[in-house]
From TrEMBL:
Lineage, broadest ranks: Eukaryota, Metazoa, Spiralia, Gnathifera, Rotifera
GO BP annotation list: sulfur compound metabolic process
Gene source species: Rotaria sordida
One Pfam family recorded for the sequence: Mo-co_dimer
Keywords: Heme, Iron, Metal-binding, Molybdenum, Oxidoreductase
Record-given protein name: sulfite oxidase
Any coiled-coil regions, as ranges: none
Stored Gene3D superfamilies: 2.60.40.650, Cytochrome b5-like heme/steroid binding domain, Oxidoreductase, molybdopterin-binding domain
Pathway: Energy metabolism; sulfur metabolism; Sulfur metabolism
Keyword Membrane: no
SMART domains assigned to the protein according to its UniProt record, in alphabetical order: Cyt-b5 (SM01117)
GO molecular function list: heme binding; molybdenum ion binding; molybdopterin cofactor binding; sulfite oxidase activity
EC primary class: oxidoreductase
């Protein structure tokens, strides 16, 4: 019977199924990949499939294993839940209907700990990434660091080619899959321990005033690759070069307006955000920010990026946008906002995205509760032009052919970005051609931004006269200072941490003027 069933479901759901070992899991796996949390048809209460329900009886995996025939019925275990799917097996209605009704088959819970002990017998047979969008022209715009989950950084020359980063060139940092969203069922839940309110997508857009801010977003892991060194070791995580950053116009409603409208601004220390992207154990991406930040600054529940509806990679339908703070807190696909005395109980708030002491060589070696979560960004700058279209992490010495404009003006143009955290404006950006002995002031392109609300990045340009350029390989270094005279460290040695976070050491590129150009154009 088991074999026949498997076959039956394979036929129906082939595209969703990768592997299986148990019939029940096939169904459950398929069931749960789509709607999280599922809206219960009758009670209209949000429930999470497989979550422990204290009022139900307990059955062991051994009990479950006895129910695999028509006579005894068909049971299955999924997460902490035990299900009797006999009637389902008799009638096997179509997929959509099953999705809505799976918890109707619920009869009990596994004993505490059995789920973990039997994880191998409870199967997850879904391609969580089935809703990841097609990404057109990705290779043109990005260095793709991983496909599943999708992590792609903007090529440096593209970064500085416009003040606002076009959506299709904006870096994408996904810790898991892109979740499925049914906008008609979508609800944003907002609450605290006592009460929970909910808003539909249209409610949110219609009932609150909209705001637009220009803000950079930068991953705390941007420039991680530059932290690897021989003395201290290779850092762990996605090996970003300088492109896990972008600058965009974000439109949405103020988080503070929404909190105030439900009287949720009076108590609590942290505002927690959770996304619809959850792993197979129902752990969803989540992060939190201090309530002071949420109430006083331009923190948005955003629905537009550069005046267009958010794309699925950037968090459709709604994402949080916390300006001045590391990207990790700007939760995408947000569907739950919780006011609490505690930080979000998620891996990314409680363990990852923390700068550990340099003595820690394995992240497991530390009690994370003693290390604060990163919030505000530090002062940062990077050189983005000239740059190669090949992976910035691999280029040792870049061969540069000056463009026509530069030839006419007998100069080499250098461009890059700078940014600081917490709304601090960039005060200056300088470059050095002699390893930091002397510094040259660059020209800044920046917005006039309100005091302590400088969320946007600053682009900068410097023209090096041909006469000042050596004919052999040479280095260019850049560094920025913000209005609080925070500056960047000269090397990553003093800020090295095993997860390679918050690298803001002076950025250096090594280059050489193209040999043929040197010969042809009488460079000097
Ligand atoms: N739900 C959810 N939100 C998320 C993430 C995620 O994986 N899931 N990644 C975070 C991280 S680490 C960063 S740097 C930014 C990246 O936003 P972007 O992909 O729109 O550039 O989103 C943040 N929000
Ligand atoms: Mo990030």
């Amino acid at each position: 019977m088991r074999l026949r069933l498997t076959f039956l479901f394979r036929q129906r759901f082939t595209s969703q199924i990768i592997t299986t070992s148990l019939t029940g899991g096939l169904i459950a796996g398929y069931l749960f990949s789509k709607y999280k949390p599922i809206v219960h048809a009758e009670t209209d209460k949000s429930i999470i499939i497989g979550e422990r329900i204290p009022t139900l009886p307990t059955y062991s995996m051994a009990d479950v294993a006895k129910h695999t025939t028509k006579e005894n019925g068909y049971w299955l275990a999924f997460r902490d839940g035990v299900y009797d799917i006999s009637s389902f097996v008799e009638s096997h209605p179509g997929g959509k209907q099953i999705l809505k009704t799976v918890e109707h088959y619920r009869i009990g819970n596994l004993p505490l700990g059995e789920r973990e002990a039997n994880e191998n017998n409870q199967e997850e047979v879904i391609d969580l990434f089935q809703y990841d969008p097609e990404r057109l022209n990705a290779i043109e715009n990005f260095f793709i660091r991983s496909e599943k989950p999708y992590n792609a950084e903007t090529k440096p020359s593209m970064l500085i080619s416009s003040f606002l980063t076009p959506v299709e060139k904006f870096y994408i940092r996904n810790h898991m899959h892109v979740p499925f969203v049914n906008i008609n069922q979508y609800k944003l839940e907002i609450g605290n321990e006592k009460s929970t309110y909910s808003l539909s997508y249209d409610d949110l857009k219609d009932k609150y005033q909209s705001y637009t801010i220009t803000s950079a977003l930068q991953c705390a892991g941007n420039r991680r690759n530059g932290m690897n060194n021989e003395q201290q070791g290779t850092v762990q995580g996605t090996q970003w070069y300088v492109g896990a950053i972008g600058n965009a116009r974000w439109t949405g409603v103020k988080l503070s307006d929404v909190l105030k409208s439900f009287d949720l601004d009076k108590e609590g220390k942290h505002i927690q955000f959770f996304g619809l992207d959850c792993d197979t154990s129902q752990r969803c991406y989540g992060a939190s920010i201090p309530i002071e930040k949420a109430l006083n600054d331009d923190v948005l529940i955003a629905y537009k990026m550069n005046d267009e509806i958010l794309t699925s990679d950037h968090g459709y339908p709604l994402r949080i946008l916390v300006p001045g703070i590391v990207g990790a807190r700007s939760v995408k696909w947000v569907n739950r906002i919780i006011v609490s005395d505690k930080e979000a109980d998620s891996h990314w708030q409680k363990a990852d995205y923390k700068v550990l002491p340099s003595s820690i060589k394995q992240p497991q070696q530390i009690d994370y509760d003693n290390v604060p979560a990163i919030q505000e960004l530090n002062v940062q700058s990077a050189i983005c032009y000239p740059a190669s279209n090949d992976d910035g992490n691999k280029i040792k010495i870049l061969s540069v052919k000056p463009n026509d404009d530069d030839i006419k003006n007998r100069r080499l143009t250098i461009k890059g970005y700078a940014l600081s955290g917490g709304g601090r404006q960039i005060h200056n950006v300088q470059i050095s051609l002699d390893h930091g002995k002397t510094w040259l002031q660059t020209e800044l392109e920046q917005l006039a931004q309100p005091y302590m609300r400088a969320w946007s990045w600053t682009l900068w340009t410097y023209h090096i006269p041909f006469n000042d350029i050596p004919s052999k390989p040479f280095d260019i270094i850049c560094r920025a200072m913000d209005t609080h005279t925070n500056s960047q460290p000269d090397t990553p040695l003093g800020i090295w941490n095993i997860r390679g976070l918050m690298n803001n050491a002076w950025h250096k590129i090594s280059l050489q003027i193209d040999e043929n150009f040197l010969k042809e154009k009488k460079f000097k």
